[in-house]
């Protein structure tokens, strides 16, 4: 995305020191590993999570074990993201009139490895007049395709975009007549000066609130929604304007403005997770304060590049609280063209696109971007399948009941389950587990602590059964719980066959079975 090919840390630090940041809310840079961001969501019906010592039971037996799956398992909170619209528009063919929008969206959503459809558009693409949404047709096409193909949807509304300037801005025309516009300079080899609005102007703030209220009314309760990007300062809503100054008179005004705009979005979006960009505060607009606030509020994280990335951003993404998802993209090779001149390979024979996408696993990411070019993506996958296949086997969370023990305890039976996560990320929310009889009369459920089991880890939990259940067959299934208690089914990621609803069967042994173990 032509980002961060400049050095201005010294200038930024000078500005921060000169403006008395200590009196503001700005959060100093810190390591994220072990940092206290809180404990995540409060878990209702918290399961007993041990320890489960040998002195607790009167006998035990391992009644089920499962193995890692090497197949893709589609669940909420992870996946490969196809862009029906990016900051420059839809596919190149659609922009050039060689295919319709409908054809573009259908081709992209039909790719077998696409899990989420994503729209990144300008404010002007969703609103042309006060008080009402005027959604670009890409929204209906994307939502309809998601329903047809069992996909999910995310989006970002940009308040600023380099694409289109100077002919038009990301802001709708009606608002440009009310808000001061500031020329901030030239960059990226442009012949014109880029323009930013005075975000702190009352007319802008009023319209921004109204926009979010309208978007929330339209999308916050839509079950197709996966995440929405936090609306942030600057180019593409990434929290920066490259090496150019901001339109604000001083740092404190900028920080206060975006802290308040962030609070508004956190307050209004009750159900759909918001994803905050981890962009360092190179434009001095309060990104550190915004990021800290969002992490404590349970927002997911994202970054719009991965190889050309500052050390602090890698620290933040890799060592985030485990109950937060990470959305990763990289726009440098967004066309996925199978051409050695476009995607060079290194001395190990690994092409630059694959190298980028596999680095998302080092961060424990949940999502990777595919951008808009469906034909190129299909050709790329045919020529270089390893990258996508590896992501689909490892990215995000991949949870299963690895061990299930039946124990004699409290005069009845107890199940202790060790849940394994073979993915690279924790659960982006709370994993709720249900143990049920086949007739539905018995249902025992509860939640693990937020984020557990973490990526590559185990978490044990106990289910005490009523008397007289021994020898029966039970079902164990899971859901992921996110904001506002929204729950979605989770398919177990195990090699053993699961039921149509993603659950597994557990065969209990009888109380007089000779296989019970104790003291051996």
Keywords for this entry:
520 residues, Immunoglobulin-like, 2 domains, five-stranded antiparallel β-sheet, 19 strands, disordered N terminus
Describe the structure in your own words.
The protein is of the alpha/beta class and 520 residues long. The chain has 2 domains: 9-30 and 76-394, Phosphoenolpyruvate-binding domains (TIM Barrel); 60-70 and 397-507, Immunoglobulin-like. It is 24% helix and 22% strand. The chain contains 12 helices and 19 strands. The protein has helices at 9-18, 92-95, 101-110, 137-149, 173-176, 202-219, 251-268, 287-296, 311-318, 352-362, 374-383, 385-394; strands at residues 60-65, 79-85, 116-122, 152-158, 181-185, 194-197, 225-229, 274-277, 300-303, 326-328, 367-371, 399-409, 412-421, 430-437, 443-447, 458-464, 473-481, 487-490, 504-507. The strands form 4 sheets. It has an 8-stranded parallel β-barrel, surrounded by 4 helices. A hairpin with a 2-residue loop joins strand 12 (399-409) and strand 13 (412-421). Helix 6 (202-219) packs parallel to helix 7 (251-268), helix 7 runs parallel beside helix 8 and helix 11 crosses helix 12 (385-394). The protein is globular and about 85 Å long. The N and C termini lie far apart (62 Å). The relative contact order is 0.16.
